[in-house]
Amino acid sequence: MRASRGFCIWSALTLCGVMVLGAMSWLTRSVLASERDRAMAESRADLEERTRLALWRMDAVGAAILLGENQRPPAFYAMESDPFEPGYGDPVVKLHFEIRQDGRLRSPEVGMGSGLPPEARAEGVGRLRDLQALLSSNPVPGDELKLLSCAVEIGENAWQAVSKNAAEAKITNNGLRMKQSASSNRGDLSYQTNFNEVEKAQRAKAVGQSFENGSNSIPQQQAIQVDRPQSTGGRVIGEIGPMRAVWIGGELFLLRQLTSVLPEGQQKDGSSVEKGIQGVWLNATELRKRLLAEVVDDLLPRASLATLPGGSDPLALVSFPLLLERNESITTAAAPMSVPLLVGWAAVIVALVTASMLVRGVMRLSERRASFVSAVTHELRTPLTTFRLYSDMLQSGAVKEEKRGTYLSVLSREADRLSHLVENVLAFSQIERGSARSAVGVTTAAELLEPMRERFESRLSTAGMSLAMDLTVDAAQRPMKVDAAAVEHILFNLIDNAAKYASSGQPPLVMIRIVRSDRRIGIEVADHGPGIAPGECRRIFQAFHKSAHEAAETKPGVGLGLALSRRLARSLGGELSCESRETGACFLLSIPEEKP
57 or 361: which carries more pLDDT confidence? Predict the structure, then answer.
């Protein structure tokens, strides 16, 4: 095959391989990216679900705190001289307080009653002073009641701004309705954001209902209780607002507004109504710890709560103005190669390797067949030329009578050469097609080889060589099951090669001897010629291994005899091998011994 044609074939195969590998690489990258995105979406969805559960837990705890403080009767905040027991010692609460129109701050934690330890009262007094200083440092100094009233209004507005209707929250900012039933949307960021809005509305509704239920459980006589005359001058509570959480100066408060009806003797400026503020100063740090304790163990280990001064955020609590910070990044490990991808890559690689081997085999077969055609052409041209030349000379009478025998011997030898060549080609063709026939029988090596002696000696004599055959050894008498014609064909090919290549050896002798090993009978054919190089021992058994140039430059032959001989040997269940020696060539034909 011409080099340019081979280059084109391999270039086309390489291009196809590059395209297939490129397509598989792109497919693999796309699949891995899709798997990574899916894993990211699943991680994000899992984080959002844990976040929503954490917000529900914290709002449940926050609602309980709000409800507990909201249920305290108004008279509780004026107990300056009475024993103080309810709620004392809660680390979340710093101070309960009340402020009226006279601007005075009152707190039950500063009462002198026997129920309050002296150290607790001293702590309450200190906190009351701190509260007074905090309120005085704000933009409305000297009017703490107005400041707190504004804070109550801000807290109420913030509460009212929170949607408590889950159906309304399903509408996204861009007007698209959520598809809560579609599981494929779990990984979508906008879907999760909208779902958080819905959950926030449901949490707000639940907290609001708990407030309503809690307010309804307060006895009416407590809701409109009359303060003791010595402390309030007969004030009657007319209206009580709900507790709302609000930030003031970096501190967290629960505030509610109440309206009192004053008796006639205590009215000011002709007004019988007095407004006041009751509140709870909370320890924001302790509150955060209590809320986070509900989620850090199993839901959000790195979570924290930040201040939420205003605005709306789906991750904000509805019970307190706090914003949940998860402090978790969504990361996933590299997606492993899936079994289908691995199978696909394996199939592609196997296909490419198989295609390469197939192309290589076809090209080598094509080259060998071309070499065979060239060699056969050369092998046929030489004897045909001899036939034509000698026959013309004999016909024209140009050959003397005493030389006619020599010419006829040459013609006979060339005829045997052509016959042997044609015989090998036909036998090889039959084996290739699987149509070779064999007549297998049981015999011994001595019985098998003795009839072949004359033919072998005749072929060697044409090259000036002799044959030595030892058939007296014990192995020559052991039975074996063979096709005598096939064995003769194999051995004649070996004798023919020895006659071609070892005629110059010393001594000019071919030795055939019988050996036995591992229940096999071996027929060894050895000569004293130049031998075979170790690297050539494998190549000489390849069919059509001779090129036209080699056929012309070396001894006659097309490189088919040894390939045919090995195939015949293997068809008998045996083997033909070449042994490398310092001098001469040695071939061993091993045939299985017949079982007794």
Answer: 57
